[in-house]
Amino acid sequence: MNQLFPINRNRLLQQIENQLVWDVLVIGGGATGLGVALDAVARGYRTLLVEQSDFAKGTSSRSTKLVHGGVRYLAQGDFRLVREASIERGLLCRNAPHLVKNQTFIIPIYSYLDMLKYTLGMKIYDWISGKFTLGDSLFISRQKTMQSMPGIKAGGLLGGVLYHDGQFDDSRLAINLVQSILENDGCAINYIKVTGLLKDENQKINGAIIKDVESGEIYNINAKAVVNATGVFVDAILQMDNPSGKKTICVSQGVHLVLDKKFFPSDNALMIPETSDGRVLFAVPWHNKVVVGTTDTLINEASLEPQALEKEISFILKTASGYFTKKPQRIDVLSVFAGLRPLAAPKEGQQKTKEISRSHKIIVSASKLFTILGGKWTTYRKMGEDVVDRIEKELNWKHKKTPTADMHIYGYAEAVNWNDPLYFYGSDTSKIRERMNGTANQWISNDLKIHKMQVEWAVQYELARTVEDVLSRRTRALLLDARESIRIAPQVAQIIVKELNKN
Ligand SMILES: Cc1cc2nc3c(=O)[nH]c(=O)nc-3n(C[C@H](O)[C@H](O)[C@H](O)COP(=O)(O)OP(=O)(O)OC[C@H]3O[C@@H](n4cnc5c(N)ncnc54)[C@H](O)[C@@H]3O)c2cc1C
Question: Whole-structure pTM over 0.85, yes or no?
Answer without folding.
Answer: yes
